[in-house]
Design a protein that fits this description.
α2 packs parallel to α4 (87-101), α3 (56-73) packs antiparallel against α6 and α8 crosses α9 (212-219). This protein has helices spanning 6-16, 29-51, 56-73, 87-101, 119-125, 141-153, 168-171, 187-199, 212-219; strands at 107-111, 133-138, 158-162, 178-180, 203-208, 223-224, 228-231, 238-242, 246-247. The longest helix is centred in the N-terminal third of the chain and has 23 residues, at 29-51. Helices cover 45% and strands 15% of the residues. Residues 1-14 have a biased composition (Basic and acidic residues). Keywords: Cytoplasm, Methyltransferase, rRNA processing, S-adenosyl-L-methionine, Transferase. It is found in: Cytoplasm. Residues 1-30 are annotated as: Disordered.
């Protein structure tokens, strides 16, 4: 049998990615960046759960959801990349606060669910509630596929509808207690999407930014509404609560 010399052994070790003395190569730049992001997200999670505490079971579901989102984010733009370090405070806690504004709501509809905020988060939070369900309406097929996988891995009570937002009434069967939408459209358009569900008894909760007054002024041109504003726990925004809406003639 042909013997291998020391030079040959070094060459094989180099190709296998092992340094002299059997030491593994140092982490590359990408791995270091991932580790730094993991640390930032962990700290952000602790801050978020102080703002919106959840059970251990819900926390575990949310952990699986965030892991899946980060995996899919590499190939499908689910959230703005700049918000990744603050996924928990910017997106998770921001979504969880809606539950406290509709404490008896069991059946939710999230219009334009996108990356799952607030729909998947609500489904994770409602998983231990008997009879709970969350309808997630999304018009982009890749995002709808992600939402289905998120509902599966978190074992949460969600139903994903691949449909245009305006088709939600035909897709959603049964009563809805609360309808919501986040970062989808101006308020007057959101009311138009939600009004058929509101007419059937649903409350509407719409997270909005600092320009909420301007959006309310514009919405009043099209709708008779009596809004109630709740200040967001997670920033300078507001949540618009509506119990009814009537189109102006």
């Amino acid at each position: 049998m042909k013997q291998r010399g020391p030079g040959r052994d070094k060459e094989l070790s180099r190709r296998a990615g092992v340094g002299e003395g059997g030491a593994k190569p140092k982490f590359g730049k990408a791995s270091a960046n991932d580790q730094a992001l993991d640390s930032i997200i962990a700290a952000d999670k602790r801050a978020a759960l102080k703002l919106a505490p959840v059970s251990h079971e819900t926390e575990a579901r949310l952990d699986r959801y965030i892991a899946l989102l980060r995996e899919w984010q590499a190939k499908t733009n689910l959230v703005a990349p700049s918000t990744l370090p603050h996924l928990w405070t910017r997106h998770i806690a921001d979504s969880l606060q809606l539950v406290d504004l509709a404490p008896i709501a069991k059946r939710w509809a999230d219009l334009g669910s996108g990356g799952g905020f607030p729909g998947v988060v609500l489904a994770c939070a409602m998983a231990e509630t008997p009879g709970a369900s969350v309808h997630l309406v999304e018009r982009i097929a890749k995002k709808a596929a992600f939402l289905r996988e998120a509902i599966r891995v978190t074992t949460s009570p969600g139903v994903v509808h691949l449909a245009e937002i305006g088709d939600n009434v035909d897709r959603i069967t049964g009563p809805v207690d609360c309808v919501t939408a986040r970062a989808l459209a101006p308020l007057h358009q959101l009311i138009g999407f939600a009004e058929p569900l509101m007419r059937q008894g649903a409350k509407a909760l719409f997270p909005k930014g600092q320009d909420v007054e301007a959006e309310l002024t514009e919405a009043a041109k099209y709708w008779n509404i009596t809004p109630q504003l709740h200040q967001s726990r997670t920033g300078d925004g507001w949540i618009v609560e509506l119990n009814a809406a009537e189109r102006r003639s």
